[in-house]
Amino acid sequence: MSYNLLKGKRGIIFGALDANSIAWKTAERVHEEGGTFVLTNAPIALRMGTINELAEKTGSQVIPADATKIEDLENLVEKAMEVLGGKIDFVLHSIGMSVNVRKGNAYTSQNYDYTHKGWDVSAVSFHKTMSVLYNKDAMTEWGSIVALTYMAAQRVFPDYNDMADNKAYLESIARSFGYFFGRDKNVRVNTISQSPTPTTAGQGVKGFDGFIAYAEKMSPLGNATAEDCANYTIAMFSDLTKRVTLQNLFNDGGFSNMGVSTAVMDKFTE
Ligand SMILES: NC(=O)c1ccc[n+]([C@@H]2O[C@H](COP(=O)([O-])OP(=O)(O)OC[C@H]3O[C@@H](n4cnc5c(N)ncnc54)[C@H](O)[C@@H]3O)[C@@H](O)[C@H]2O)c1
């Protein structure tokens, strides 16, 4: 169903790798709601993924950018305004990667070059993106910026490894930069904290299958899907949420406020 929530709005969507990506589902929903956008991803992901399919389907252009490189981001923002014909109303940062997770290093024995790389890709890239948008004055008034995060920023999930620390940093950047973006440009900045979701990044985390099943049993509404996340993001891009800013918004079926559920208790009393 379409509500035309984003009619006439222009945006940039980072992080659509394949049809499972949360950014992919979001791009489809933004398109349905009448928004136009450019898609972007790291050059390597453009070669490995299937983003051109999405571009064709949504009538959008793909502009490569490694989100850790300022010059790539500057080129992206300039080209996006050219292609879309004006300033930017909405931005989705949907980027995460830990080399320590990929290489199977334990949280307690990290390779710190990998730690640094993962932090740059997963957290600092959000600061870099916002700093380019801010300094180029590329956002429209009452624009909206969203980054995706996970509750391991607040609570311990051992296998989430150094991504937990990256997400804590990412959420802090949203608040700190959100202050300046709000004060100076009337732009809102929020993070959406999403349930575990079966994507390339999600499934890279050790024990993902057990974990997603556990979260499902703990959450009164069950896990939020990638489509649910896309819908929430649409609402955050729309004019219906104009004064929501500096928030970490849980889209998790209630998981974050649960202690225990009867479904989980039953497992232990069998
Ligand atoms: N899947 C989950 O369980 C889950 C839960 C909560 C939050 N999230 C977050 O959602 C976001 C999207 O992840 P996803 O689950 O859709 O997985 P995904 O693997 O489909 O998306 C991750 C994206 O990050 C991109 N990326 C990596 N390095 C980059 C770089 N240097 N420059 C630009 N892009 C780069 C990848 O190419 C990919 O498109 C991430 O921030 C992730 O941490 C995921």
Number of discrete domains:
1
How many beta-strand runs?
A: 6
The rough form would be described as globular
| Structure ligands | nicotinamide-adenine-dinucleotide
Q: Can you tell me the CATH superfamily? A: NAD(P)-binding Rossmann-like Domain
Low-confidence stretches: none
Output the radius of gyration: 18 Å
Percentage of residues in DSSP E strands: 5-15%
Mean pLDDT: 97
Main sheet makeup: 6 strands, parallel
User: What's the end-to-end separation, in Å?
Assistant: 43 Å
What order do the strands of the largest sheet run in, or round the barrel if closed? Answer: 2-1-3-4-5-6
CATH architecture: 3-Layer(aba) Sandwich
How much helix, percentage-wise, in residues? Answer: 40-55%
- Content-based structural category: alpha/beta
Report the order of strands and helices.
EHEHHHEHHEHEHHHEH
CATH level 1 class label = Alpha Beta
Number of helices: 11
The name CATH uses for the topology is Rossmann fold
Can you describe what's shown?
Belongs to the short-chain dehydrogenases/reductases (SDR) family. FabI subfamily. GO terms for molecular function: enoyl-[acyl-carrier-protein] reductase (NADH) activity. Pathway: Lipid metabolism; fatty acid biosynthesis. It catalyses: a 2,3-saturated acyl-[ACP] + NAD(+) = a (2E)-enoyl-[ACP] + NADH + H(+). InterPro entries: Enoyl-ACP_Rdtase_NADH, NAD(P)-bd_dom_sf, SDR_fam. It is a single chain. This protein is of the alpha/beta class and about 270 residues long. The chain has a single domain, classed as NAD(P)-binding Rossmann-like Domain (Rossmann fold, 3-Layer(aba) Sandwich), CATH 3.40.50.720. Helices cover about 45% and strands about 15% of the residues. A six-stranded parallel sheet has the order 2-1-3-4-5-6, sandwiched between helices. Helix 1 packs across helix 10 (about 225-235), helix 4 (about 70-85) runs parallel beside helix 6 (about 110-135) and helix 6 runs parallel beside helix 7 (about 165-185). The longest helix has 24 residues, at about 110-135. The structure holds nicotinamide-adenine-dinucleotide. The site of nicotinamide-adenine-dinucleotide (NAD) has 27 residues, from helix 1, strand 4 and helix 8.
